[in-house]
Predict the structure.
Amino acid sequence: MSFLPPVIILVKPQLGENIGMCARAMLNCAVTELRIVAPRDGWPSESALSASAGAVEVIGNAKIFNTTADAIADLEYVLATTARSRDMSKPVILTDVAAREIRTRNNSGVQKCGILFGPERSGLENEDAVMANVLLNIPLNPQFSSLNLSQAVLLVCHAWLSADNPFVSAEILTDEETLAKKSDIEFLLNRLEGEIASRDFFRCPEQRPTIVRNIRNFFFRGQPTEQEIRTLQGIISCLIRERPNP
Amino acid sequence: MSFLPPVIILVKPQLGENIGMCARAMLNCAVTELRIVAPRDGWPSESALSASAGAVEVIGNAKIFNTTADAIADLEYVLATTARSRDMSKPVILTDVAAREIRTRNNSGVQKCGILFGPERSGLENEDAVMANVLLNIPLNPQFSSLNLSQAVLLVCHAWLSADNPFVSAEILTDEETLAKKSDIEFLLNRLEGEIASRDFFRCPEQRPTIVRNIRNFFFRGQPTEQEIRTLQGIISCLIRERPNP
């Protein structure tokens, strides 16, 4: 990973369990640096450790601060996550734009970025948000936008992880099976056409080319593997056998 | 909202609480149609309702099915969420590509899409994944990729909500033909299996499940149209006929 992940800063989180779930969500996205401002229930927290589901690398290295100002002191670029619109003149950017912004700033190699998240119930106070460069808004259903803290962290961290992922070809077969050569498909289809033709499948000769083209289209589109071709050949052989007497 | 959201299908979920959190995550992203296959702890579920945090519109309208095949019967395009690589030849696409794919298919106004999620611990079984058109992989930190069920649902639904750039998919059929419903494919495959079984295709009974799964995988992957299903039915009828005397 050549990009520096953003620092996640939880401001006055209430439940240890939520902090642990945030740590887990962070590590899911390869984001590892967690800072916590004045956790209500103290630190270290057994419930946080337990809820982190093994994200010890994150939860065990979390740093505790008394104030938000202290927690962001060494950062160059800070985003404040907020659902409500704020009574302040500050740019608002959406998650995907924020993710690219962080990537770009890291890419230049000098700017350390952090993302602020407020307490579970109330969100960030204006005094905290005001220290950020921009407000970060997670686009959600406006009729039902209340997110769990760890889910907000997950969406933002995952946007960062996914930003700038080199485009992965959409179509990868999952195993190492060998795709059939076109000639194998051709061979199968010629056999199939011969078998059905000899059984009067094509009642109207003038429709035969269209029907054959449609059949061919289906089998080529599915792009059979070599094994699948063998199975399909076996099925044809089987179907044209007479049924054994019971 | 001019795009039809995907249907979310939870296969054999264990905890009601997780089902409720999935419903909440869905509604956060304006995804409202929930289907549940054989929930372990029964239905309706008090704990699901409570964990949904007010997403009554989703949890109250959830439909229960006995089998995955029933739950996807009316869908044209199905994605199977899976972390592990599978021993099957099936395209794998990442979350953002999947989101655009669903948007694009909805945009053409005809294709109803669904996304399968497996049980909390084990994930989807191969027999379920095989009925999907593609496998859906959520890109995560490979060293720590275990996601809570509701977080997987959240990431996938949020990708759908955020995908507002429909692109032209290579996978869309080029003409206006209607894709077959999953139940039509199921009907065809059941008939095919019966016909070859009665002709001693399965010499080793213990290999039958694997062979059947591979056959099913090929036909589901090719995503036949309604017309192609009719043609394939006709081909089976034809092949099992005795050849007329010359």
